[in-house]
């Protein structure tokens, strides 16, 4: 269940980052409220995940998924640039996230 909580927290993290961009310096009420709610939701679900997961693994996966999701959706929603260097970095981040999940699973079996 911790990994499900972490995935939910990561979705909130992406919403938080994208909504923050839309606040225009917190001058837009709707995106500002969404930003605050998404931040609270992300931290809440991260805290649930960290009841079971190591903080180093949980936080790293949360920020990794949040980073990749934010850049990918920022490209789609805000027409931000994408290039080979960014794609290579995403592959490394995703590989790291998968490696942490695998090592956490292997550690539980040891």
Automatic annotation (TrEMBL):
Q: Which UniProt keywords apply?
A: Cell membrane, Membrane, Transmembrane, Transmembrane helix, Transport
Q: Which SUPFAM superfamilies match?
A: Multidrug resistance efflux transporter EmrE (SSF103481)
Q: Transmembrane stretches, by residue range?
A: 33-50, 57-78, 84-102
Its subcellular locations are:
Cell membrane
Q: Where is the signal peptide?
A: none
Membrane association type:
Multi-pass membrane protein
Q: What Pfam families does the database record attribute to this sequence? A: Multi_Drug_Res
Major place of residence = membrane
**What does the similarity note say?**
Belongs to the drug/metabolite transporter (DMT) superfamily. Small multidrug resistance (SMR) (TC 2.A.7.1) family.
Protein name, UniProt field: Multidrug efflux SMR transporter
Q: Which organism is it from?
A: Kitasatospora aburaviensis
Q: Taxonomic classification, please?
A: Bacteria, Bacillati, Actinomycetota, Actinomycetes, Kitasatosporales
């Amino acid at each position: 269940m911790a990994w499900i909580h972490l995935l939910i927290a990561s979705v909130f993290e992406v919403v938080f980052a994208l909504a923050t961009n839309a606040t225009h310096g917190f001058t837009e009420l709707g995106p500002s409220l969404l930003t605050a709610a998404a931040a609270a939701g992300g931290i809440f679900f991260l805290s649930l995940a960290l009841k079971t997961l190591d903080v180093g693994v949980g936080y790293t996966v949360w920020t990794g998924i949040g980073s990749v999701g934010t850049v990918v959706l920022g490209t789609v929603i805000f027409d931000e640039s994408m290039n080979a260097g960014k794609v290579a970095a995403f592959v490394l981040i995703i590989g790291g996230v998968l490696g942490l999940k695998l090592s956490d699973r292997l550690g539980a079996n040891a």
